[in-house]
Design goal:
The protein is of the alpha/beta class. It contains 4 helices and 6 strands, in the order E-E-H-E-E-H-E-H-E-H.
């Protein structure tokens, strides 16, 4: 999985495969209204997890373990951000992001969180909603 790893890899050739995914959802997505109103709402919140398809995941894990070895195939939770910048925990003096502790909060929320990127939740959510 190509993403920002939130866990220390034990080998550079590890493959991280999500067992489930949650979205940095509006309010981790970033909630624009939190910057507009001073009512105490959080700037970032999390959605519920969406599980990956068990059969497809099992096939991917099996094929990957066969090619790489089972010790290099790591399964865990992935998070999806709605922004390249603020909801991925990037900081800078030019933006008021309120995200200095965002990565730590994500890791505190789930010890199995291994990565953060921008696509997986949305693909799993579309697959979950698909009729075909």
């Amino acid at each position: 999985m190509l993403s920002s790893s939130l866990m220390q890899p034990s080998a550079t050739s590890e493959l991280h495969l999500p067992t489930a995914n949650y979205c940095l959802h509006m309010p981790n997505r970033r909630d624009p209204d939190a910057w507009t109103y001073s009512d105490g709402r959080p700037h970032y919140t999390l959605s519920a997890t969406v599980p990956a398809d068990q059969q497809l995941r099992d096939l991917l894990v099996s094929a990957s373990a066969e090619q790489l070895g089972p010790d290099l195939v790591i399964q865990g939770l992935n998070a999806t951000a709605d922004s390249f910048y603020s909801s991925q925990g990037r900081t800078g003096a030019h933006f008021e992001d309120y995200n200095d502790a965002l990565i730590e909060q994500l890791l505190d929320n789930n010890k199995h969180l291994m990565s953060l990127e921008m696509e997986t939740f949305h693909l799993l959510d579309l697959a979950r909603c698909s009729r075909g």
